[in-house]
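Suppose a colleague, Dr. K., hands you the sequence of a protein chain of 257 amino acids and asks what its three-dimensional shape might be. Before reaching for any lab equipment, you can write down a predicted structure in token form. Begin with the sequence itself:
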Amino acid sequence: MSTMSRSRASLSPAPSERSTLPMGASAEPGSPDFKSLDQPTREQLLNHFFERFKFYTSLCLGTSAILAVFAFLFLIPFVVEPAIQTILAEFVPEAGICTVSEHVHAETLTNCTWASCREGCTTAHTKCHKIRVNLARKPFVEGALVPTEWDETDLKFLINPEGCGYPPRVNCSVFASDYAGPRAPKIFPCYYSLTRPDLVVARYSWESTIRGLILALVLPTTVFVFSLSVLAYWHCRCCDRACNRRVHAESFASKEE
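The predicted structure, expressed as tokens, is then:
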């Protein structure tokens, strides 16, 4: 008896091989009339695709949110803080007239407490160029004569409001040669500060300063808020209930019904 039950169990088709044909009809598994009962429906396939899409999208959004936080922390000392200091310095929009009064190529850390140019804003330098200029607070005109009187003398001259930068945008050797070298012009345009009278810079742009500050604040914040909002909507039950409160309320019968 046990032998017959085992043989019947082995002869019975597997669930994936059962057919939907009428009783008494037969079809081979490879024939076109054979249909499996375990084939997923279109709705099940769409739900499976959405779950996979939701998983990988959540992974990308979580990574983007973390990278946005690190990017914002990285941009604070390199973009946000220098831009705010530049705005507070209130540089004049129209360049004045400057001429070099002193140029020193110093060495050792004690002699490089300040520098007109530094390649790298976070490292200390043992060699530096220190340039001082005389300033005339009048608009610079190409080909004008050297002023006989100066409004300020021996002011610190920096390459930009931060006094530093990174190659190839900032090259201190080229900067020193252009302004204090043997072929440097006698007078050149420069920008002075209204709140810091001892500060004069060679490069300044209000538009680029504001543009860099806005991008550094808006882009990481937008990516972080968007990623966090989507993740909260998908995975936080409280947010899902709050967003679909009307749908949950309509599922219950009203008093009139």
